[in-house]
Amino acid sequence: MTDHDLGRKILAPYYDAAENLLLDGAIPWDVDAAMVAFGFSIGPFAAQDLTGLDCAFQERKLRPPTPRGFPISERMIEMGRLGKKAGVGWYRYPGGGGAVEDPLLEDLISEESYFAKITANRLPTTKYARTFSSRS
After folding, report:
1. Cβ atoms within 10 Å of 84's Cβ, excluding its own
2. What is the reported pLDDT for 71?
3. Within 10 A of 31 (CB to CB), how many other CB atoms are there?
4. pLDDT grade, residue 130 (50/70/90)?
5. pLDDT by residue (tens digit) across 4-37?
6. Could you give the CA distance from residue 60 to residue 44 in angstroms, rounded to a whole number?
7. 35: which of 2, 128, 131, 133 is 20 to 30 A away, CA to CA?
8. Element (H, E) at 51
9. Choice between 65 and 34, residue whose per-residue pLDDT is larger
10. CATH topology classification for 3-135
11. What pLDDT was estimated at residue 57?
């Protein structure tokens, strides 16, 4: 097993838990901010934007399916929201610059929660890190 393989195995549950939080009502930038406050150097969504959502999607295809699946990121990939390299992913990158919150993504997340018949409950930002760390 290479270092890259080990890293993928360690990060997989972290990214899976992050997307499940979205289906439950979280917003990517709130989760990222909570994880940085919790001690991580970068949140899961900002990290995926840097590596590319298409890369994360390919990694997920190598693992057994999960009960909820990953409808949000799958839809984002279909829309061409591949991360910073495409200028838009979980965040927008106008002019190739820094990350900017994208309100259109909040609508997409709400739609996918609705389609999955999940009642979204937005937690106060202070509870994300605790909820996230208990799921991973």
Report:
1. 21
2. 87
3. 26
4. low
5. 566 666 777 778 888 888 988 899 999 999 889 8
6. 15
7. 2
8. helix 44-51
9. 34
10. N-(1-d-carboxylethyl)-l-norvaline Dehydrogenase; domain 2 (1.10.1040)
11. 80
CA separation for the pair 114, 94 (Å, rounded): 29
User: How far from 53 is each of 38, 46, 77, 121, CA to CA, in Å?
Assistant: 23, 10, 7, 25
Tokens coding 38: 């919790």
Structure tokens at 116: 């999955």
Which two three-digit tokens encode residue 27? 């917003």
Show the CA angle centred on residue 84, arms to residues 83 and 88, nearest 5°. 60
Distances (CA, A) of 69 to 72, 91, 112, 113: 9, 21, 11, 12
Higher pLDDT residue, 51 or 129?
Answer: 51
> How far is 17 from 104, CA to CA, in rounded Å?
22
Give which of 127, 99, 109, 120 is closest to 25, Cα–Cα. Answer: 120
